[in-house]
Amino acid sequence: MKGLIIINAYPNGAKFYRQAERIAEELRALGCETDVKRNGEIYATLDNVGKVSLSFAEQYDFAIYLDKDKYLGKALEASGLKLYNSAQAIETCDDKMQTYFALRNAGVALARTIPAPLCYTPNAKADEKFLENVAKKLGFPLVVKKSYGSFGAGVQLVHGIPELIETANKFLYEPHFYQEFIEQSSGKDIRVIVIGGKVAAAMERVAQKGEFRSNVELGGVGKKIDLPENYAQTAIKAAKALGLDYCGVDILERGDGLVCEVNSNAFFEGIESVTGVNVAKAYAKYILSNR
């Protein structure tokens, strides 16, 4: 058995290498030879009859795809290689708005959300009438989010029409959406790691003072919790609906929990430290048991 772990061609920091190496370490400990490669080290060619050939990936039995590049993911699967997670699941999770549409019949609660019209026209300005209707439906404060982004980037809390117009113009040429602000969960959320349809670990994340986003990368602090069963079921349903073998589900604390985001390549270094759970080992065991 031989596995391949693929990270982005342009890793943005050492944490990307650490994540990959931790999983590789646990796979090797279980007797599975494992290599770690960057996306750009694998050459995928689509020939003139539609056949996909790869530079060397055929020698592997599976690949853990710690990237969001939908093109190489599809090429790897077209060649017959099994991916964890699938290319489609990763693509859906990469776009937060697509994630919400995929979850709408999953039996989980979501915050009220309004997608922004896509803009392709140079020198355009945000439609102020549309924004006035957004404000009427969602009230203030409300959250504006870019559809693509990680670690809390591209997420803003706005408090009135002038600020909403300013933010809409700033985000105009990027897919984004508007979402109700969940006051009960301001500055905190619950991160749940789901592996193979089961909860592996969970922690509450609490933001630093004055910050409504709880991301650890923005100074948030993780705390060990006893995960309520209804929150566990919410996370499991979300992972199943999206077809994810592994993910981090972020839940806002209202009622049975609102699904805020689902990250197909959630970092686990922080949650391992907080909970003492060996997430990398659990993921490695799951993959090898499903071969």
Describe the structure.
This protein has 291 residues and is of the alpha/beta class. The chain contains 9 helices and 16 strands. 32% of the residues lie in helices and 27% in strands. The strands form 4 sheets. A 6-stranded mixed beta sheet has the order 7-16-15-12-13-14, sandwiched between helices. Strands 2-1-5-6 form a 4-stranded parallel beta sheet, sandwiched between helices. β1, α1 and β2 form a beta-alpha-beta unit. α2 (70-78) runs antiparallel to α3 and α5 (128-138) crosses α6 (161-170). The protein is globular. The relative contact order is 0.15.
Overview features:
291 residues, alpha/beta, six-stranded mixed beta sheet, four-stranded parallel beta sheet, 32% helix, globular
The coarse silhouette is globular
Approximately what portion of the residues adopt beta-strand conformation?
25-35%
User: Which percent bin holds the helix content?
Assistant: 25-40%
Overall radius of gyration: 20 Å
Largest sheet: 6 strands, mixed
Compute the separation of the termini in Å.
9 Å
Low-confidence stretches: none
Report the order of strands and helices: EHEEEEHEHHEEHEEHEEEEHEEHH
Structural class: alpha/beta
Order of strands side by side in the largest beta sheet? 7-16-15-12-13-14
Mean pLDDT level: 93
Number of strands: 16
- Count the DSSP helices: 9
